[in-house]
Specification:
mainly alpha; 15 helices; globular
């Protein structure tokens, strides 16, 4: 059973948390939609398809697990989703992963053009920072802490480096540890930030939480790569087998489906051990994490 949040009076459980949190994050995203200038149209287009909302849901569920009022997380959750959307817009560009489909819709450079996609991603990145810096539910110290942490997460030693390595690996022969490191930089760090950021606000971050966040983030990318080679386009909402066609170096491609499933199961066992250490065996966060792992059958 989740905890009651003092100001918002929200009680989350395994049956209601997805509907409550999806409505909460979607309302927040819709309220920041812009309508004045030409660039606002592609920004709104990029945010209009909600996707899975994995990162904001993890932020909300972590906040609930430590009894942090969800109002403290609303702006942060929206900022995380906007920052994630920026990364997708740029990742899909012809000079990067060159994808024409995202969440079942044409990507920004297909729907508009390449220069519009670049500028849309730039705008989304700054918008994410604004959502935190202008949040009236956060103190000045909390804003500085979160903005610094988020910038480190997505910056030149974080997500950007991960994307760079992903591209470099197309022409090299990376080892397993190098691929996992790329996963952690490219994808895991922002997922880790989603879990860790409410803990930073509450000063409750410890090694079990850090380890759990890393296990969830790394396994998420590995599962995505496995789905890419095992599921059709209609299921995943983007071009299937794209990694193979683009000469990407992923663990499922290099080591096979069964070896990847074994590693995912190892991550799952370790993650559940961390959840037990944190006494979250009955919390919706565990249920949601189990759902993330169950994307692999």
């Amino acid at each position: 059973m989740g905890q009651s949040n003092h100001l918002t009076k929200v009680v989350l459980n395994n049956h209601n948390f997805e509907s409550i949190l999806f409505e909460r994050i979607n309302n927040k995203i819709n309220n920041i939609s812009l309508k004045k200038d030409l660039i606002d149209d592609p920004i709104n287009y990029s945010l209009s398809n909600p996707g899975k909302r994995v990162r904001p849901l993890l932020a909300y569920l972590t906040a609930d697990a430590i009894d942090l009022d969800l109002m403290k997380v609303d702006g942060l959750a929206a900022a995380i989703e906007v920052m994630h959307t920026y990364s997708l817009v740029h990742d899909d560009l012809p000079c990067m992963d060159n994808d024409s489909l995202r969440r079942g819709k044409p990507t920004i450079h297909i729907q508009y053009n390449e220069s519009t996609a670049v500028l849309t991603g730039d705008a989304l990145q700054s918008l994410a920072i604004m959502l935190i810096s202008e949040d009236k539910n956060l103190t000045s110290d909390e804003k500085i802490l979160l903005v610094q942490s988020l910038c480190r997460t997505v910056g030149h030693n974080g997500m950007i480096l991960g994307q760079y390595l992903d591209l470099q690996f197309e022409n090299t022969s990376p080892m397993r540890d190098e691929i996992i490191n790329m996963y952690q930089l490219k994808t895991s760090l922002l997922i880790e930030f989603s879990i860790i950021s409410p803990l930073l606000i509450s000063n409750k971050l410890n090694e079990d939480w850090r380890d759990l966040a890393r296990l969830i983030g790394t396994s998420f990318q590995l599962i995505d790569d496995l789905i890419d080679v095992t599921q059709p386009t209609e299921i995943i909402g983007k071009t299937a087998s794209k990694d193979i066609d683009s000469k990407k170096k992923t663990l499922p491609i290099l080591e096979g489906v069964e070896a990847s499933k074994e590693l995912i199961n190892d991550y799952k066992i370790k993650a559940f051990k961390k959840l037990d250490n944190l006494r979250l065996g009955d919390h919706p966060l565990k249920h949601y994490i189990e759902n993330l792992f169950n994307r692999v059958h």
